[in-house]
Design a protein that fits this description.
mainly alpha; 2 helices; elongated
Length: 75
């Protein structure tokens, strides 16, 4: 059921038979994830949460791994 006040989210079109399309899609997805994690880290630094340091450390490791993935695959 489509309602006019809730627009349909445009789907990302990935052409799986086109190498560059897949690479671009994966690169964009991973970069978006890194950006979200970096924003979470900044938010945690501003909040005095009891486990903030552990969460920040975990997010930093995740960012490092994602950036390593991008580098290893020349993305």
């Amino acid at each position: 059921m489509n309602r006019p006040d809730f627009p349909i989210r445009e789907l990302r079109r990935v052409k799986l038979d086109h190498h560059d399309s897949v690479r671009t899609h994966v690169q964009q997805q991973v970069c978006d994830e890194v950006e979200r994690l970096e924003r979470r880290i900044e938010t945690l630094r501003l909040v005095k949460a009891p486990h903030a340091a552990i969460m920040i450390s975990t997010y930093e490791r995740m960012i490092s791994r994602k950036k390593g993935f991008l580098q290893n695959w020349d993305l």
